[in-house]
Design brief:
Number of strands: 38
Number of helices: 26
Number of domains: 5
CATH topology of the largest domain: Rossmann fold
Distance between the termini: 33 Å
CATH architecture of the largest domain: 3-Layer(aba) Sandwich
Helix content: 25-40%
């Protein structure tokens, strides 16, 4: 058999019909990338080579004997599977197999829901968490094939294998037969398994970013003596920053660059290389990549342009770049990236195109834009906004903001996270991670591209409308801002001052006009501000400081804004010193509009031993409005953070298994299908969502009989989409209480619609009309949407959005968020609606969305919110197989890279 390279196999699926969704790039516990896919017959030579490379001890533990050579019949058996009753996955690094996992369905005692599972990892890759990854993906494949239980025969002395099963969160039952342990466990998802997977995902992704930001050595490929060229600028900046490890310039024709020994290729470097900065033309990237793969570089920072930002051909080149890098265990930052930086003196890395970085600080900054990133960092430097680490992802083909969030979550050197986002690669995962990170560290984000997104990010990102973005940020506790200026304004407060404990603000200053302006701005942001404390234009520095200290000490004050205009011909330094010393150890935030300066003025900076501004420095804003806006955002974040973590609520009385059976029976082979009203009612009934009883009839006598069976009063409606939701009520007759009225209404509706089929429905209690729906969003998969019914609400887009599954708080927020929601509380003598019934209904819809991904759209309209209950009058439900982005992020599913 002619050997097939892994790249060729991945390109054409090896000519074998295995589920492509089972392929995945996965992260080992050390942050390295490994490719996982089903085994194929063309893997025969690889499998034999893998087996021969195992140590005698590993073979003994796996096969219970020496098993020195794999016979041909076993090779055929292991490489020819049906991907149903027998499934086998291989882990690939380069063109080599480094791990194999297999399950085989057991057929005994008349049952077929159990399978025997086994796996083995190459000796040099044991301890990287690869066994647990194989187990996760085998369990997912087994669940798709109707298997609910795994069994394994393991030597009792093989404690490592037993630990893999136990540490994965499974509840294992054991029995022993001499030296062999028989293990059995259910593979159904549990909270314990999900917790384990999320923890492992968090650690491996954080480790992969750490490999980028904490390299022990760096190669600059395309290094140049010309500082105006990209390779020359990166090398110059690395050397100028004083990177603490060795730097290896790579130049095909020079022995040295900028006085540093150079090498023709990366593979010629005699020492290990952790990080490679690539600054060669896009068309030369393949050759460079081969060298990096041979050298086993851990990560690439590709500052080269000419990829997806340039053309469709560039999109394909970018895809090949990432695929090849991942196949050989590397992560990619970029391409078209500005670079990365770590200001920790133990690292001192500036592998970017920015010549001078901001000072050392405790703020992590992720930026997608390269060109804009230069201006952003320059602005941060001028404001003395201290950074811990910085990453510009460029086209974000691989490493993304989600990965950085995982890293900063556990980074002890980072207290605040800033994000400049142009698109989302995986919004659901962002939501899950950001919600956790924001509980301990402020996350401030500006989302650009509201009306136009860069072409470069179209291949790796998804577009969200502004309502979806706002819902995403609000749910996760992310502080959303509208501009870079706002981003830095918030960062100055979060980075150097404590959070406010409440909304009460004291304004202290020496200018009456400026004080009044500040109070007006504070009240406009819903902060509680009393009249300003005016110390007068001739107050001394000590008087100014005393007034601020008194405000900070007041039990009625949660934050202080100091406004200062210098007296004529009086130096400002004494006032600055007084302000700085007063704020140094304060437990409440203090911000200022000191001389109209912006950032951390030298006079207000509290410096560490290295001279960089540190916590306790007083941020200054050029105007009171910006100071107040930052403080208001800080208070809203502090309020969100102080709230207890809300849990997902699943109401009782639901039967998801029956709903799945119904959906599978009606699912079309292709495209989507709108269920009938009766089918929709049956599916919704599985989730305790009852449609007000109705019957479709074709004669006047049937209409009367239906009305008598349902019970008066009833409504008679024309059937057909064009008659639904009309404001003129032309196709409906309401509150019918007699047989003669029903007969007449039937005749009217049949004449209007031109159809003999007419609907008779029991009247529901009067209430406020609402709509509740599942909206198929191209990025999230599904959003739960709520609003009040009516043309005006639809016209102005008065809708609230939440991402399922809904927590208890999210369900209440959904119902209370529309601008028209006060109508539910009663207005002008009207009775209040039962909002708790609406909340429960939303929770049931959320559960349906999570359990039934085949539901592409659901509309409950109208929902009548009455004082006692919420009645669903009508429903439309659409199903389909094409589940967009369904597997983008499922916390209960096996780990994989985007």
């Amino acid at each position: 058999m002619i050997p097939v390279t892994e790249q060729e196999l991945r390109k054409n699926n090896g000519g074998h019909n295995y589920p492509l969704a089972w392929e995945a790039d996965v992260l080992a516990s050390d942050g390295g990338v490994v490719h996982l896919r089903p085994i194929t017959p063309v893997d025969s030579e690889r499998l034999v080579r893998f087996h021969a490379g195992l140590s005698e001890r590993t073979r003994y533990l796996r096969y219970f004997g020496p098993y020195p050579r794999m016979p041909e019949r076993d090779v055929i058996h292991f490489t020819n599977v049906d991907h149903k009753d027998r499934v086998s996955f291989v882990l690939i690094l380069g063109d080599d197999i480094i791990g194999v996992g297999l399950y085989e369905r057991l057929m005994y005692s008349g049952t077929s829901d159990s399978a025997e599972v086994a796996f083995v990892i190459a000796d040099e890759h044991q301890g990287r968490g690869l066994g647990s990854i194989l187990l996760e993906h085998l369990a997912d494949a087994a669940a798709q094939n109707g298997i609910t239980r795994f069994e394994a025969e393991v030597l009792a002395e093989n404690r490592g294998m037993i630990a893999v099963f136990k540490e994965a969160g499974y509840e294992i039952s054991r029995s022993y037969d001499g030296s062999v342990a028989h293990l059995a466990f259910d593979i159904d998802p549990t909270d314990a398994r999900q917790t384990v997977r999320e923890s492992r995902e968090r650690m491996s992704e954080a480790r992969s970013v750490r490999n980028v930001l904490h390299p022990r050595s760096i190669a600059v490929i395309g290094a140049s003596t010309d500082p105006t060229k990209v390779g020359g600028a990166v090398l110059q900046n690395l050397l100028a920053a004083g990177f603490t490890g060795p730097v290896f310039p790579v130049h095909p024709e020079r022995n040295s660059v900028r006085g540093v020994r150079a090498y023709p290729t990366v593979r010629d470097i005699p020492d290990p290389v952790d990080l490679a900065v690539v600054a060669v033309p896009a068309q030369a990237i393949d050759e460079v990549l081969d060298d990096c793969l041979t050298k086993r570089v851990k990560a690439l920072v590709v500052v080269s342009a000419g990829f997806s930002e340039a053309s469709m051909d560039g999109v394909e080149a970018e895809r090949r770049l990432v695929q090849s890098a991942r196949t050989h265990g590397m992560r990619v930052i970029g391409p078209n990236a500005l670079g990365v930086a770590n200001t920790d003196p133990a690292i001192a890395m500036n592998a970017s195109l920015v010549p001078v970085l901001p000072p050392r600080g405790r703020i992590g900054f992720f930026c997608q834009s390269g060109a804009l990133g230069i201006a952003i960092l320059d602005t941060a430097r001028r404001r003395q906004l201290g950074l811990s680490t910085f990453v510009s992802a460029g086209n974000r083909a691989d490493l993304s903001g989600n990965d950085l969030l995982q890293y900063w979550d556990s980074d002890p050197e980072t207290d605040v996270v800033l994000l400049y986002l142009e698109s989302f690669g995986n919004p659901r995962k962002f939501s899950r991670i950001a919600r956790r990170v924001a509980r301990s560290k402020p996350v401030v984000a500006v989302k650009s591209g509201r009306h136009a997104a860069p072409f470069a990010l179209a291949a790796t990102g998804v577009s969200l409308d502004e309502s979806s973005v706002s819902a995403l940020f609000e749910q996760t506790g992310v502080v959303q801002v509208g501009s870079i200026s706002d981003l830095f304004d918030c960062a100055l407060l979060f980075g150097y001052q404590p959070l406010p404990a409440g909304p009460r603000v004291a304004v202290v200053g020496n200018s009456t006009a400026l004080g009044v302006l500040t109070v007006d701005a504070a009240r406009g942001e819903n902060l509680a501000a009393n009249d300003p404390i005016d110390v007068g234009p001739h107050a001394s520095p000590s008087e100014f400081a005393s007034a601020i200290a008194a405000a900070l000490a007041s039990e009625d004050v949660d934050a202080v804004i100091a406004v200062f205009v210098p007296p004529v011909a009086v130096p400002s330094e004494p006032y600055a010193a007084a302000l700085r010393e007063t704020a140094r150890d304060a437990a409440k935030p203090l911000v200022s509009t000191f001389l109209g300066s912006e950032g951390i003025p030298d006079q207000l900076a509290v410096r560490d031993h290295a001279g960089a501004p540190m916590r306790g420095s007083v941020p200054s804003y050029p105007g009171p409005e910006r100071a107040v806006a930052a403080l208001a955002r800080a208070w809203r974040y502090a309020r969100w953070k102080s709230q207890p973590v809300s849990k997902v609520v699943r109401p009782e009385g639901m039967d998801p298994d029956r709903a799945r059976d119904l959906i599978r029976g009606w699912l079309p082979e292709q495209g989507q299908r709108l269920l009938t009203d009766e089918q929709s009612a049956e599916v919704l009934g599985c989730y305790g969502i009852k449609i007000v009883p109705f019957k479709d009839v074709t004669t006047p006598d049937e209409a009367i009989a239906a009305a008598q069976e349902l019970g008066y009063p009833v409504a008679v409606k024309a059937v057909g989409e064009q008659w639904q939701y009309r404001t003129d009520l032309l196709g409906v007759r309401l509150d019918l209480t007699r047989d003669t009225s029903v007969r007449l209404a039937y005749s009217d509706m049949a004449a209007i619609s031109g159809s003999a089929t007419v609907r008779v429905q029991k009247m529901a209690a009067k209430g406020v009309g609402c709509t509740l729906s599942l909206q198929d969003d191209p990025s999230f998969g599904t959003l739960v949407t709520f609003g009040l019914a009516g043309v005006i609400s639809e016209l102005v887009g008065d809708r609230a959005y939440q991402v399922p599954p809904l927590t208890e708080d999210a369900a209440h927020t959904l119902i209370n968020s529309p601008k028209a929601s006060p109508l539910l509380d009663g207005l002008r003598g009207a009775p209040a609606a039962n909002k708790e019934a609406l909340v429960e209904l939303a929770q049931r819809v959320s559960a349906l969305a999570v359990d039934l991904p085949e539901v592409r759209a659901l509309l409950l309209h109208p929902v009548l919110a009455a004082p006692d209950d919420a009645s669903v009058i009508g429903a439309q439900l659409r199903i389909g197989k094409e589940v967009a982005f369904q597997d983008l992020d499922n916390a209960a599913a096996a780990r994989r890279l985007r």
